[in-house]
Amino acid sequence: MFHFGRQTMRILITAGGTREYIDPVRFISNASSGRMGYALARASLKAGHKVTLITAPTALKPPTGAKIVRVESAAQMFEAVKKQFPKCDCLIMAAAVSDYTPAKPSKTKLKKQATKLTLELKPTQDILKWAGKHKSESRARRHGPRILVGFALEDRDLRGNAERKLREKNLDMIVANAPGAIGAQRSTVHIKIRGADWIETARSDKTWVARRILSLIATVTK
Fold first, then answer.
1. Of 49, 73, 105, 221, which residue has the fewest beta carbons closer than 10 angstroms?
2. What is the pLDDT of residues 174-202, one digit of tens each?
């Protein structure tokens, strides 16, 4: 057994909502503020861990002491995760990564027309699924699988859908919440470690939730 809670971890965290460009000035995005990912980064640093934060655009100030990798699109985030993944002990995917991106983005600004505009979208790469398939690959300083933590935003069957994601993407922990949590200072989250019961944190601020998530990560043994 290897207990991560007893020593410093190299934690890789993603945050913010990605931007998928339609043309050079317009993009599809979401309402994610990035607060949860940034709170996790600050809590990890305070606990003495080494943190790399891959962040999509936000209005938040980066936490001092973290290595910051800035990205915009889902594709850029995927490439950044793949590059940093071999060096991490734990990946926390708190970012709101777009599920779709324009199939053929315009190289020039689209002009307004009187007719309807049809936008063709294609699926983006599933970063968590990729990480789940590669979690057991060896690392530079340690051996054994990494800890993978995913997030799920669900408006129906929250726990059922989140648990399916936990299983299908080979995660160690899932953090689930409802759409009302987007941009909110306080929210109710549901946390499940593989093989354990659900834990609910009712109407808690994101700083407290971040500390709670880290304390639960420390209980995951390999």
1. 221
2. 999 887 767 667 788 999 999 999 999 98
